[in-house]
Amino acid sequence: MIYDSLENIHLYQNLPGSLFKALEYAAKVDSSQAEGVYEIAGKDMFAMVSSYRTHSPADTKFEGHRKYIDLQVLLEGCEYLHFVGTEGLSVSQPYSDEKDLVFFEDPPSFSTVILKPSLFVILFAHEAHQPGCHFGKQSHVRKLVVKVKATARQSLS
Question: Looking at residue 68, which CATH number applies to its domain?
Fold first, then answer.
């Protein structure tokens, strides 16, 4: 996982494949970007903008992906994102190749980062994550997720 501010993307120019291109794209997206799916490089890289209300961690599962690396940036609001390595996790819902999605049982421990505008997180195939969480009360967020097709070199697993 990489967690940093978009102000520091120059530090990531040597990332493999399209990851730096994804960061550059994310840095240019305006907070008023309409919801929807945006093609960047066909099925190799695309972006999604969505709005939702944060939720209690008890109301969702840890998820993971195999085909795509996630670059997540909030355009509005604040949320907590929990993450953990997938090694040793129990699968609660088998992997869907169509959705590129697997769900895991709650791990015994995990780490947490705060996402808010200007901060980003990059999550690789060997990392499960539980996005959209809040502590205390729900809030409205708008999020940009750039999906970057994983290659053997990028997967880091």
Answer: 2.60.120.370
